[in-house]
Design goal:
This protein is an alpha+beta fold. It contains 10 helices and 23 strands.
Protein backbone atom coordinates (compact mmCIF):
# COMPACT_ATOMS: atom_id res chain seq x y z
CA UNK A 1 0.00 0.00 0.00
CA UNK A 2 1.58 3.33 -1.05
CA UNK A 3 1.23 6.71 0.64
CA UNK A 4 -1.67 7.77 -1.58
CA UNK A 5 -3.60 4.64 -0.55
CA UNK A 6 -2.99 5.49 3.10
CA UNK A 7 -4.03 9.11 2.56
CA UNK A 8 -7.23 8.01 0.85
CA UNK A 9 -8.10 5.60 3.68
CA UNK A 10 -7.44 8.30 6.26
CA UNK A 11 -9.67 10.84 4.50
CA UNK A 12 -12.48 8.30 4.17
CA UNK A 13 -12.19 7.43 7.85
CA UNK A 14 -12.32 11.09 8.90
CA UNK A 15 -15.31 11.77 6.63
CA UNK A 16 -17.21 8.73 7.94
CA UNK A 17 -16.45 9.86 11.48
CA UNK A 18 -18.09 13.19 10.72
CA UNK A 19 -21.10 11.33 9.32
CA UNK A 20 -21.44 9.34 12.55
CA UNK A 21 -21.29 12.52 14.63
CA UNK A 22 -23.99 14.08 12.46
CA UNK A 23 -26.15 10.98 12.98
CA UNK A 24 -25.90 11.38 16.77
CA UNK A 25 -27.36 14.87 16.45
CA UNK A 26 -30.43 13.47 14.78
CA UNK A 27 -31.89 13.11 11.32
CA UNK A 28 -31.57 16.03 8.91
CA UNK A 29 -34.80 18.03 8.59
CA UNK A 30 -37.05 17.26 5.67
CA UNK A 31 -36.79 19.98 3.05
CA UNK A 32 -40.05 21.69 2.06
CA UNK A 33 -41.74 20.89 -1.25
CA UNK A 34 -41.82 24.27 -2.95
CA UNK A 35 -44.83 25.04 -5.12
CA UNK A 36 -44.52 26.73 -8.52
CA UNK A 37 -45.37 30.40 -8.86
CA UNK A 38 -46.73 31.82 -12.13
CA UNK A 39 -46.85 35.50 -13.03
CA UNK A 40 -48.13 36.97 -16.29
CA UNK A 41 -48.91 40.25 -17.96
CA UNK A 42 -52.45 40.09 -19.30
CA UNK A 43 -52.78 43.86 -19.69
CA UNK A 44 -50.54 44.53 -22.69
CA UNK A 45 -48.58 41.28 -23.12
CA UNK A 46 -45.23 42.98 -22.56
CA UNK A 47 -42.18 41.97 -20.56
CA UNK A 48 -40.18 44.51 -18.59
CA UNK A 49 -36.44 43.88 -18.71
CA UNK A 50 -33.44 45.70 -17.29
CA UNK A 51 -29.68 45.13 -17.45
CA UNK A 52 -26.58 46.15 -15.49
CA UNK A 53 -22.90 45.14 -15.51
CA UNK A 54 -19.96 45.86 -13.20
CA UNK A 55 -16.27 45.12 -13.50
CA UNK A 56 -15.47 43.04 -10.42
CA UNK A 57 -11.78 42.94 -9.62
CA UNK A 58 -9.88 42.90 -6.30
CA UNK A 59 -9.06 46.44 -5.21
CA UNK A 60 -5.72 45.33 -3.76
CA UNK A 61 -4.44 43.05 -6.53
CA UNK A 62 -0.70 43.55 -7.05
CA UNK A 63 -0.19 45.36 -3.74
CA UNK A 64 1.04 42.28 -1.89
CA UNK A 65 -1.64 42.62 0.80
CA UNK A 66 -3.36 39.41 -0.31
CA UNK A 67 -2.25 36.42 -2.35
CA UNK A 68 -4.65 35.60 -5.20
CA UNK A 69 -4.83 32.13 -6.70
CA UNK A 70 -6.00 31.29 -10.18
CA UNK A 71 -8.85 28.78 -10.22
CA UNK A 72 -9.55 25.80 -12.41
CA UNK A 73 -6.35 23.84 -12.98
CA UNK A 74 -3.39 23.73 -10.55
CA UNK A 75 -3.55 24.12 -6.79
CA UNK A 76 -1.91 27.22 -5.29
CA UNK A 77 -1.17 28.77 -8.70
CA UNK A 78 -0.37 32.47 -8.11
CA UNK A 79 -2.13 34.93 -10.37
CA UNK A 80 0.55 37.20 -11.81
CA UNK A 81 -1.34 39.69 -13.97
CA UNK A 82 -4.51 40.73 -15.77
CA UNK A 83 -5.32 39.97 -19.40
CA UNK A 84 -8.98 41.03 -19.31
CA UNK A 85 -11.31 41.91 -16.43
CA UNK A 86 -13.86 39.86 -14.51
CA UNK A 87 -17.43 41.16 -14.70
CA UNK A 88 -20.80 40.40 -13.14
CA UNK A 89 -24.02 41.15 -15.02
CA UNK A 90 -27.71 41.02 -14.15
CA UNK A 91 -30.88 40.81 -16.23
CA UNK A 92 -34.26 41.47 -14.66
CA UNK A 93 -37.06 39.69 -16.52
CA UNK A 94 -40.48 40.77 -15.29
CA UNK A 95 -44.13 41.01 -16.26
CA UNK A 96 -45.15 44.29 -14.67
CA UNK A 97 -46.55 44.60 -11.15
CA UNK A 98 -46.76 40.82 -10.69
CA UNK A 99 -42.97 40.68 -10.46
CA UNK A 100 -40.33 38.61 -12.17
CA UNK A 101 -36.97 36.87 -11.85
CA UNK A 102 -33.34 37.98 -11.74
CA UNK A 103 -30.71 36.24 -13.86
CA UNK A 104 -27.09 36.95 -12.89
CA UNK A 105 -24.03 35.94 -14.93
CA UNK A 106 -20.61 36.05 -13.24
CA UNK A 107 -17.18 35.46 -14.82
CA UNK A 108 -16.20 33.09 -12.03
CA UNK A 109 -15.35 29.43 -11.56
CA UNK A 110 -18.27 29.08 -9.18
CA UNK A 111 -20.03 30.13 -6.00
CA UNK A 112 -21.39 27.64 -3.48
CA UNK A 113 -25.03 27.63 -2.46
CA UNK A 114 -24.00 29.00 0.94
CA UNK A 115 -22.53 32.08 -0.74
CA UNK A 116 -25.48 32.44 -3.11
CA UNK A 117 -27.79 32.52 -0.08
CA UNK A 118 -25.66 35.29 1.48
CA UNK A 119 -26.15 37.41 -1.63
CA UNK A 120 -29.89 36.71 -1.67
CA UNK A 121 -30.15 37.66 2.01
CA UNK A 122 -28.56 41.03 1.22
CA UNK A 123 -31.30 41.50 -1.38
CA UNK A 124 -34.27 40.66 0.86
CA UNK A 125 -35.63 44.22 0.82
CA UNK A 126 -35.14 44.42 -2.94
CA UNK A 127 -36.96 41.11 -3.48
CA UNK A 128 -39.95 42.34 -1.48
CA UNK A 129 -40.04 45.70 -3.27
CA UNK A 130 -39.68 44.22 -6.75
CA UNK A 131 -41.82 41.13 -6.12
CA UNK A 132 -38.84 39.06 -7.27
CA UNK A 133 -39.71 35.36 -7.40
CA UNK A 134 -36.17 33.98 -7.81
CA UNK A 135 -32.57 35.18 -7.99
CA UNK A 136 -30.34 32.85 -10.03
CA UNK A 137 -26.57 33.36 -9.96
CA UNK A 138 -24.92 31.58 -12.88
CA UNK A 139 -21.13 31.30 -13.14
CA UNK A 140 -19.41 30.90 -16.50
CA UNK A 141 -16.97 28.50 -14.81
CA UNK A 142 -13.96 29.98 -16.54
CA UNK A 143 -10.62 28.48 -15.47
CA UNK A 144 -8.51 31.64 -15.59
CA UNK A 145 -10.12 33.75 -12.87
CA UNK A 146 -9.77 34.13 -9.14
CA UNK A 147 -10.48 31.26 -6.77
CA UNK A 148 -13.99 32.01 -5.51
CA UNK A 149 -14.70 28.58 -4.01
CA UNK A 150 -11.54 27.93 -1.97
CA UNK A 151 -10.65 24.69 -3.73
CA UNK A 152 -7.57 26.04 -5.56
CA UNK A 153 -5.70 27.53 -2.62
CA UNK A 154 -2.69 26.26 -0.71
CA UNK A 155 -4.43 23.42 1.09
CA UNK A 156 -5.49 22.98 3.85
CA UNK A 157 -6.11 26.74 3.73
CA UNK A 158 -8.84 28.18 1.54
CA UNK A 159 -7.93 29.92 -1.71
CA UNK A 160 -10.66 32.51 -1.26
CA UNK A 161 -9.78 36.04 -0.19
CA UNK A 162 -12.44 37.40 2.14
CA UNK A 163 -11.89 40.99 0.98
CA UNK A 164 -12.53 40.03 -2.64
CA UNK A 165 -15.54 37.86 -1.82
CA UNK A 166 -17.16 40.88 -0.15
CA UNK A 167 -16.57 42.90 -3.34
CA UNK A 168 -18.21 40.12 -5.37
CA UNK A 169 -21.24 40.00 -3.08
CA UNK A 170 -21.58 43.80 -3.09
CA UNK A 171 -21.33 44.02 -6.87
CA UNK A 172 -23.87 41.26 -7.49
CA UNK A 173 -26.25 43.06 -5.16
CA UNK A 174 -25.58 46.35 -6.99
CA UNK A 175 -26.16 44.99 -10.51
CA UNK A 176 -29.40 43.33 -9.41
CA UNK A 177 -30.71 46.62 -8.04
CA UNK A 178 -29.50 48.57 -11.08
CA UNK A 179 -30.96 46.07 -13.56
CA UNK A 180 -34.35 46.42 -11.92
CA UNK A 181 -34.07 50.23 -11.92
CA UNK A 182 -33.14 50.15 -15.64
CA UNK A 183 -36.13 48.06 -16.73
CA UNK A 184 -38.22 49.06 -19.72
CA UNK A 185 -41.10 47.47 -21.62
CA UNK A 186 -40.70 45.36 -24.70
CA UNK A 187 -40.86 41.90 -26.25
CA UNK A 188 -38.82 38.79 -25.54
CA UNK A 189 -37.73 36.40 -28.29
CA UNK A 190 -35.91 33.09 -28.34
CA UNK A 191 -33.80 31.71 -31.17
CA UNK A 192 -31.19 29.00 -31.66
CA UNK A 193 -28.28 27.98 -33.84
CA UNK A 194 -26.19 24.81 -34.06
CA UNK A 195 -22.45 25.40 -33.59
CA UNK A 196 -20.79 21.94 -33.58
CA UNK A 197 -17.32 23.32 -34.35
CA UNK A 198 -17.24 25.07 -30.94
CA UNK A 199 -17.19 21.77 -28.98
CA UNK A 200 -14.56 19.11 -28.45
CA UNK A 201 -14.44 16.10 -26.13
CA UNK A 202 -11.60 13.69 -25.31
CA UNK A 203 -13.85 11.33 -23.36
CA UNK A 204 -15.21 8.36 -25.32
CA UNK A 205 -18.88 7.79 -26.20
CA UNK A 206 -19.98 11.33 -25.35
CA UNK A 207 -23.21 12.73 -26.81
CA UNK A 208 -22.71 16.45 -27.46
CA UNK A 209 -25.48 19.05 -27.54
CA UNK A 210 -24.30 21.85 -29.84
CA UNK A 211 -27.22 24.30 -29.61
CA UNK A 212 -26.49 27.98 -28.96
CA UNK A 213 -29.60 29.65 -27.51
CA UNK A 214 -30.29 33.39 -27.57
CA UNK A 215 -32.99 34.94 -25.39
CA UNK A 216 -33.35 38.45 -26.85
CA UNK A 217 -35.18 41.41 -25.35
CA UNK A 218 -36.25 44.16 -27.75
CA UNK A 219 -37.37 47.36 -25.95
CA UNK A 220 -40.35 49.31 -27.27
CA UNK A 221 -38.47 52.61 -26.87
CA UNK A 222 -35.66 51.64 -29.25
CA UNK A 223 -32.98 51.47 -26.56
CA UNK A 224 -30.35 48.72 -26.33
CA UNK A 225 -31.41 45.12 -26.73
CA UNK A 226 -30.35 42.63 -24.02
CA UNK A 227 -29.25 39.11 -24.96
CA UNK A 228 -28.95 36.13 -22.64
CA UNK A 229 -26.87 33.45 -24.38
CA UNK A 230 -26.43 29.80 -23.44
CA UNK A 231 -24.02 27.17 -24.81
CA UNK A 232 -22.26 24.05 -23.52
CA UNK A 233 -18.46 24.34 -23.57
CA UNK A 234 -15.97 24.63 -20.70
CA UNK A 235 -14.11 27.96 -20.63
CA UNK A 236 -10.89 26.11 -19.76
CA UNK A 237 -8.63 26.41 -22.80
CA UNK A 238 -5.78 28.42 -21.31
CA UNK A 239 -4.64 25.51 -19.15
CA UNK A 240 -2.50 25.23 -16.05
CA UNK A 241 0.40 27.14 -17.55
CA UNK A 242 -1.55 30.39 -17.69
CA UNK A 243 -1.20 32.79 -14.75
CA UNK A 244 -3.08 35.79 -16.18
CA UNK A 245 -6.61 36.67 -15.16
CA UNK A 246 -9.12 36.23 -17.98
CA UNK A 247 -12.84 35.61 -18.43
CA UNK A 248 -11.72 33.18 -21.17
CA UNK A 249 -13.84 32.83 -24.33
CA UNK A 250 -16.98 34.49 -22.83
CA UNK A 251 -15.01 37.75 -22.86
CA UNK A 252 -14.18 37.38 -26.55
CA UNK A 253 -17.73 36.26 -27.32
CA UNK A 254 -19.07 39.49 -25.85
CA UNK A 255 -16.43 41.60 -27.57
CA UNK A 256 -17.24 40.03 -30.95
CA UNK A 257 -20.90 40.97 -30.54
CA UNK A 258 -20.12 44.46 -29.21
CA UNK A 259 -18.03 45.33 -32.28
CA UNK A 260 -20.95 44.58 -34.60
CA UNK A 261 -24.04 45.46 -32.56
CA UNK A 262 -24.72 47.79 -29.64
CA UNK A 263 -26.41 45.36 -27.25
CA UNK A 264 -26.10 44.10 -23.68
CA UNK A 265 -24.87 40.50 -23.37
CA UNK A 266 -24.96 37.92 -20.56
CA UNK A 267 -23.56 34.44 -21.05
CA UNK A 268 -24.36 31.19 -19.26
CA UNK A 269 -23.07 27.66 -19.74
CA UNK A 270 -25.13 24.52 -20.33
CA UNK A 271 -24.37 20.86 -19.58
CA UNK A 272 -20.59 21.19 -19.87
CA UNK A 273 -19.34 18.00 -18.20
CA UNK A 274 -16.26 16.85 -20.21
CA UNK A 275 -17.13 19.27 -23.05
CA UNK A 276 -14.19 21.48 -24.02
CA UNK A 277 -14.16 24.39 -26.49
CA UNK A 278 -13.59 23.59 -30.14
CA UNK A 279 -10.56 24.13 -32.41
CA UNK A 280 -8.11 21.74 -30.67
CA UNK A 281 -5.85 21.98 -33.73
CA UNK A 282 -4.83 25.51 -32.64
CA UNK A 283 -1.69 25.15 -30.52
CA UNK A 284 -1.66 28.79 -29.41
CA UNK A 285 -4.10 28.76 -26.48
CA UNK A 286 -4.92 32.46 -26.62
CA UNK A 287 -5.66 32.09 -30.31
CA UNK A 288 -7.96 29.17 -29.54
CA UNK A 289 -9.78 31.14 -26.84
CA UNK A 290 -10.30 34.08 -29.19
CA UNK A 291 -11.47 31.77 -31.99
CA UNK A 292 -14.01 30.12 -29.67
CA UNK A 293 -15.46 33.44 -28.54
CA UNK A 294 -15.48 34.85 -32.06
CA UNK A 295 -17.24 31.76 -33.44
CA UNK A 296 -20.00 31.81 -30.84
CA UNK A 297 -20.38 35.58 -31.04
CA UNK A 298 -20.83 35.50 -34.83
CA UNK A 299 -23.27 32.59 -34.53
CA UNK A 300 -25.35 34.58 -32.02
CA UNK A 301 -25.43 37.56 -34.38
CA UNK A 302 -26.69 35.37 -37.25
CA UNK A 303 -29.61 33.71 -35.43
CA UNK A 304 -32.67 34.31 -37.63
CA UNK A 305 -35.34 31.99 -36.25
CA UNK A 306 -36.57 34.10 -33.32
CA UNK A 307 -39.96 33.28 -31.83
CA UNK A 308 -41.82 35.79 -29.69
CA UNK A 309 -42.55 34.67 -26.12
CA UNK A 310 -45.83 35.27 -24.28
CA UNK A 311 -45.35 37.47 -21.19
CA UNK A 312 -45.61 34.71 -18.62
CA UNK A 313 -43.10 33.26 -16.13
CA UNK A 314 -43.36 30.15 -13.96
CA UNK A 315 -40.63 29.44 -11.41
CA UNK A 316 -39.95 26.84 -8.72
CA UNK A 317 -36.75 26.96 -6.66
CA UNK A 318 -36.29 23.64 -4.81
CA UNK A 319 -33.63 22.83 -2.17
CA UNK A 320 -32.47 19.21 -2.04
CA UNK A 321 -29.85 17.00 -0.41
CA UNK A 322 -26.83 15.91 -2.45
CA UNK A 323 -25.46 12.72 -0.85
CA UNK A 324 -21.74 13.20 -0.28
CA UNK A 325 -19.86 10.09 -1.35
CA UNK A 326 -16.77 12.09 -2.32
CA UNK A 327 -14.66 11.86 0.82
CA UNK A 328 -12.05 14.33 -0.45
CA UNK A 329 -14.50 17.15 -1.23
CA UNK A 330 -16.39 16.43 1.98
CA UNK A 331 -13.15 16.60 3.96
CA UNK A 332 -12.39 20.01 2.40
CA UNK A 333 -15.87 21.16 3.37
CA UNK A 334 -15.19 19.97 6.93
CA UNK A 335 -11.99 22.06 6.95
CA UNK A 336 -14.05 25.06 5.72
CA UNK A 337 -11.84 25.35 2.65
CA UNK A 338 -15.18 25.66 0.84
CA UNK A 339 -18.40 27.08 2.25
CA UNK A 340 -21.14 24.48 2.56
CA UNK A 341 -24.19 23.40 4.53
CA UNK A 342 -23.51 19.84 5.76
CA UNK A 343 -26.35 17.60 6.90
CA UNK A 344 -26.86 14.04 8.12
CA UNK A 345 -27.89 11.46 5.52
CA UNK A 346 -29.24 7.91 5.69
CA UNK A 347 -27.90 7.31 2.19
CA UNK A 348 -24.43 7.17 0.71
CA UNK A 349 -21.12 5.89 2.03
CA UNK A 350 -20.31 8.73 4.41
CA UNK A 351 -23.66 9.28 6.10
CA UNK A 352 -23.60 12.93 5.09
CA UNK A 353 -25.09 15.26 2.51
CA UNK A 354 -24.77 18.83 1.26
CA UNK A 355 -27.78 21.10 0.83
CA UNK A 356 -28.05 22.30 -2.77
CA UNK A 357 -30.86 23.50 -5.01
CA UNK A 358 -32.42 23.15 -8.45
CA UNK A 359 -34.65 25.69 -10.18
CA UNK A 360 -37.31 25.24 -12.84
CA UNK A 361 -38.24 28.20 -15.04
CA UNK A 362 -40.77 28.44 -17.82
CA UNK A 363 -40.10 31.70 -19.64
CA UNK A 364 -42.96 32.18 -22.05
CA UNK A 365 -43.18 28.68 -23.48
CA UNK A 366 -39.47 27.84 -23.01
CA UNK A 367 -38.69 25.39 -20.22
CA UNK A 368 -35.39 25.88 -18.39
CA UNK A 369 -33.74 23.75 -15.71
CA UNK A 370 -31.15 25.49 -13.56
CA UNK A 371 -28.62 22.98 -12.23
CA UNK A 372 -25.84 23.07 -9.66
CA UNK A 373 -22.47 21.77 -10.87
CA UNK A 374 -21.37 20.45 -14.25
CA UNK A 375 -23.75 17.87 -15.65
CA UNK A 376 -22.59 15.61 -18.46
CA UNK A 377 -24.71 16.15 -21.60
CA UNK A 378 -26.16 12.64 -21.23
CA UNK A 379 -27.76 13.68 -17.95
CA UNK A 380 -29.83 16.23 -19.82
CA UNK A 381 -30.27 14.68 -23.25
CA UNK A 382 -29.81 10.94 -22.81
CA UNK A 383 -27.38 8.39 -24.20
CA UNK A 384 -27.74 4.97 -25.81
CA UNK A 385 -24.18 3.71 -25.25
CA UNK A 386 -24.36 -0.08 -25.24
CA UNK A 387 -22.82 -2.38 -22.63
CA UNK A 388 -20.25 -3.51 -25.24
CA UNK A 389 -18.64 -0.07 -25.47
CA UNK A 390 -19.50 1.57 -22.12
CA UNK A 391 -16.80 2.19 -19.53
CA UNK A 392 -18.38 -0.12 -16.97
CA UNK A 393 -19.64 -2.86 -19.28
CA UNK A 394 -23.20 -1.96 -18.31
CA UNK A 395 -25.87 -0.60 -20.59
CA UNK A 396 -27.94 2.61 -20.45
CA UNK A 397 -30.72 0.81 -18.60
CA UNK A 398 -28.88 1.47 -15.31
CA UNK A 399 -28.90 5.23 -15.94
CA UNK A 400 -31.71 7.41 -14.58
CA UNK A 401 -34.16 9.10 -16.93
CA UNK A 402 -32.63 12.06 -18.74
CA UNK A 403 -34.03 15.53 -18.06
CA UNK A 404 -35.50 16.10 -21.53
CA UNK A 405 -37.48 12.87 -21.19
CA UNK A 406 -38.74 13.84 -17.73
CA UNK A 407 -39.81 17.25 -19.03
CA UNK A 408 -41.19 15.70 -22.24
CA UNK A 409 -39.34 18.47 -24.04
CA UNK A 410 -36.37 17.88 -26.35
CA UNK A 411 -35.76 21.65 -26.37
CA UNK A 412 -35.34 21.90 -22.60
CA UNK A 413 -32.71 24.56 -21.86
CA UNK A 414 -30.01 23.79 -19.26
CA UNK A 415 -28.17 26.39 -17.19
CA UNK A 416 -25.20 24.81 -15.39
CA UNK A 417 -23.00 25.87 -12.43
CA UNK A 418 -25.88 28.02 -11.21
CA UNK A 419 -26.75 28.70 -7.57
CA UNK A 420 -24.17 26.14 -6.41
CA UNK A 421 -20.77 24.64 -7.20
CA UNK A 422 -20.98 20.85 -6.73
CA UNK A 423 -18.69 19.24 -9.31
CA UNK A 424 -19.42 16.88 -12.18
CA UNK A 425 -22.51 14.73 -12.64
CA UNK A 426 -21.58 11.54 -14.53
CA UNK A 427 -23.87 8.82 -15.90
CA UNK A 428 -23.69 5.59 -13.81
CA UNK A 429 -22.71 3.36 -16.76
CA UNK A 430 -19.69 5.60 -17.38
CA UNK A 431 -18.71 6.16 -13.72
CA UNK A 432 -15.30 4.75 -12.74
CA UNK A 433 -13.28 5.34 -9.56
CA UNK A 434 -9.72 4.42 -8.61
CA UNK A 435 -9.91 1.12 -6.72
CA UNK A 436 -7.72 2.11 -3.78
CA UNK A 437 -7.67 5.92 -4.04
CA UNK A 438 -11.29 6.90 -4.83
CA UNK A 439 -11.82 10.63 -5.43
CA UNK A 440 -8.09 11.20 -4.97
CA UNK A 441 -6.59 9.71 -8.15
CA UNK A 442 -8.04 9.03 -11.59
CA UNK A 443 -9.61 5.64 -12.13
CA UNK A 444 -9.12 3.58 -15.28
CA UNK A 445 -11.86 1.70 -17.07
CA UNK A 446 -11.80 -1.73 -18.71
CA UNK A 447 -10.39 -0.14 -21.88
CA UNK A 448 -7.59 1.44 -19.78
CA UNK A 449 -9.02 4.93 -20.31
CA UNK A 450 -8.43 7.48 -17.55
CA UNK A 451 -11.46 8.86 -15.69
CA UNK A 452 -10.76 12.25 -14.13
CA UNK A 453 -14.22 13.79 -13.78
CA UNK A 454 -15.47 11.32 -11.16
CA UNK A 455 -12.80 12.54 -8.72
CA UNK A 456 -14.51 15.95 -8.72
CA UNK A 457 -18.09 14.71 -8.45
CA UNK A 458 -20.41 14.26 -5.49
CA UNK A 459 -20.37 10.56 -6.30
CA UNK A 460 -22.04 7.72 -8.16
CA UNK A 461 -25.52 8.70 -6.93
CA UNK A 462 -25.33 12.30 -8.19
CA UNK A 463 -26.98 11.56 -11.55
CA UNK A 464 -29.87 9.77 -9.89
CA UNK A 465 -30.29 12.62 -7.39
CA UNK A 466 -30.50 15.17 -10.20
CA UNK A 467 -32.98 13.03 -12.14
CA UNK A 468 -35.29 12.23 -9.22
CA UNK A 469 -35.24 15.83 -7.95
CA UNK A 470 -36.18 17.13 -11.39
CA UNK A 471 -38.93 14.53 -11.76
CA UNK A 472 -40.35 15.60 -8.40
CA UNK A 473 -40.26 19.25 -9.50
CA UNK A 474 -41.98 18.45 -12.79
CA UNK A 475 -44.75 16.55 -10.97
CA UNK A 476 -45.65 19.83 -9.25
CA UNK A 477 -45.16 22.04 -12.32
CA UNK A 478 -47.44 19.89 -14.46
Amino acid sequence: MDIADLASKAVVSIAKGKGKRLAKKGKAPELPKVQPVTVKNTADGKFDVGFAMKETMPDDFGTGKNKYYIAGHKMAQDMTGIHDPITVSAMWIGVGDEGGIMMVSADMVGLTNTEVKLVRASLDDFSKKSNCKAINISCTHQHAGFDTTGYWGKLPKTGKVDRYMKIIFANIKAVCEEAYANRTKGDLYIGTSHVPEAQYCKRANMTLHDTLTRIRFVPDNGSKETWLLNYAAHPNTLGGGNTLCSADYPYFLRQTIYTQKDVNVLYSIGAIGAVDPGFPELEDKWQRVEKQGETLGKAALLIDNDEKMPAEITVLQQPFYFHADNSVLFFLAMLKVMSSNIAQSDKGELGAALVSEMTYIRLGTQQIVVLPGEAFPEIAYGCDVSAEISATGKGPEINPACLTKIADDENLLVFGVTNDFTGYVVEPNDFILHKTQPYLSNGRDRFDRSHYHETNSMGYSAANTISTTFADIMSRVK
